[in-house]
Design brief:
This protein has about 70 residues and is an alpha+beta fold. Helices cover about 20% and strands about 30% of the residues. The chain has a domain at about 20-55. It is built from two helices and two strands. The chain has a two-stranded antiparallel ribbon with strand order 1-2. The longest helix is centred in the middle third of the chain and has 8 residues, at about 30-40.
Length: about 70
């Protein structure tokens, strides 16, 4: 389990109330199989809810989020 300290240490702002994002194969067609594998989900299901506890912006001067 990810702790509040780990989120903060890695540059995330901890959300006071959290939230959820619903993802489907149509939303992330290129990544769906990998996401399901990483989280132990069945890729043939309709979708998945992700619980969100922190947020970190990817700014234009940050090349951390760039794909190679």
């Amino acid at each position: 389990m990810i702790t509040k300290d780990e989120l903060t240490k890695n540059g995330y702002d901890v959300l006071p109330h959290g939230g959820w994002i619903y993802i489907t194969p149509e939303v992330l067609p290129r990544d769906w199989d990998d996401i399901c594998k990483d989280f132990g989900l069945d890729a043939t299901q309709r979708g998945a809810w992700l619980a969100i506890s922190g947020v970190k912006q990817d700014t234009w001067d940050n090349d951390e989020g760039e794909e190679e």
